[in-house]
Amino acid sequence: QVQLAESGGGLVQAGGSLRLSCAASGVTFSRYTMAWFRQAPGKERECVAVISWSGGTTYYVDSVKGRFTISRDYAKNTMYLQMKSLKPEDTAVYYCAADSRMFGSIATMQRPSGVGAWGQGTQVTVSL
Fold first, then answer.
1. How far apart are CA 41 and CA 48, in angstroms?
2. CA 51, CA 57: separation in Å to the nearest integer?
3. What is the pLDDT of residues 12-63, one digit of tens each?
4. Residue 23 is inside which H or E element, if any?
5. Quick one: which of 106, 120, 127, 116 has its CA closest to 49?
């Protein structure tokens, strides 16, 4: 059974940085495309970034391009989201997600319907 555990959220001032981590277990980490989603109050869950199972391809939603970096460490079975120049509109619960299939595509993981497993979420709050 896949288990995903996020950490690293918190309260930060606008312009600051945070790094989120997602530790995966119960899965052959190297075979699964992974993603970060976020959900703000009253809004739909949106895909923030995706990294392919090989680590060679990434996707970012336009609003975070140039500020966020997704990466993965195969030795630690862990995915990261480095967030810089944070804005109040980045405030949300951030979720780690694993593909429902092995060797899946970046495109599929941009939608919640493509996700096979979710983490419990970690709160990120950016203040003015």
1. 16
2. 6
3. 999 999 999 999 999 899 999 999 999 999 999 999 999 999 999 999 999 9
4. strand 18-25
5. 106
Separation between Cα atoms, residue 94 and residue 96, nearest integer Å: 7
Q: Which residue has the tokens 């989603």?
A: 37
66-114, pLDDT tens digit by residue? Answer: 999 999 999 999 999 999 999 999 999 999 999 999 999 999 999 999 9
* Structure-derived torsion over alpha carbons of residues 123, 22, 79, 107, reported in degrees to the nearest 10: -70
Tokens of 58: 């990434």
Q: Are the CB atoms for 67 and 3 separated by under 8 Å?
A: no
The residues, any chain, with a CB within 8 Å of residue 42's CB and separated by 6 or more, are none
Helices (H) and strands (E) in the chain, counts: 0, 11
pLDDT classification of 1: cutoffs 50, 70, 90: confident
CB atoms within 10 A of CB 92: 22
